[in-house]
Design goal:
Elements: H1 2-26, E1 33-41, H2 47-59, E2 68-72, E3 89-95, H3 98-106, H4 108-117, E4 121-130
Antiparallel strand pairs: 1-3, 1-4, 2-3
Length: 132
């Protein structure tokens, strides 16, 4: 009886985990815009500058068209020719569509962010894509 019960609990847990993952993926629908931005700081060794940029990035979540905001640091993954983790800070945003991303670009909070924090970075690279 215990073995059967254990198998049932294990199978149930696996099913719930699968449903959670599928549910998360299903909430992102075709046509949504993903805005990936990579920042290279002028002073990459400065924890103060890094934290200031992260603080500034967090303000962008207040913009209504920003549906999701993820802020990241380079991962210490395997060194391979195709991996570029030379950036200092990254952000990934999700928008419902291109219109939402355009609204974000023109929003006063975004403009204030650029004005206040642009002096911290020497390079920015943006990759925008549409989910299919």
């Amino acid at each position: 009886m215990t073995l059967t019960r254990r198998k049932f609990i294990t199978a149930s847990a696996a099913s719930l985990a699968s449903a959670s993952v599928l549910g998360a993926d299903m909430s992102i629908q075709n046509g949504k815009l993903i805005h990936n931005v990579y920042f290279w700081l002028k002073n990459p060794e400065s924890n103060k500058d890094q934290q200031a940029l992260i603080t500034g990035l967090r303000t962008l979540q207040q913009i209504p068209s920003v549906k999701t905001l993820h802020i990241g640091l380079p991962a210490n993954t395997e060194k391979r020719n195709v991996v570029d983790n030379s950036f200092s800070v990254s952000e990934t945003m999700y928008f419902d569509d291109v219109k939402g991303q355009n609204e974000y670009q023109a929003h006063p909070i975004h403009k204030a962010f650029v004005e206040k924090y642009a002096s911290l970075w020497e390079k920015v690279v943006v990759h925008d894509s549409i989910l299919i």
